[in-house]
Amino acid sequence: MVNYELGWRRQAWLVFAKDLKVELCTGEVLMTSGFFAVLVVVIGSLSFYAGPDAQVLVAPGVIWVAVAFASVLVLSRTWQRERENDALSGLLSLPIERSAIFAGKALGVLVFIVCIQLVVVPVTALFFDISLVKHGVGLTLLCLFATPGIAAAGTLFGAMTARTGARDLVLASVLFPLLAPTLLAAVAGTRELLGGAPIEQLVDYLKLMGVFAVVFTAGGFGMFGALIEP
Question: What is the pTM assigned to this prediction?
Answer without folding.
Answer: 0.88
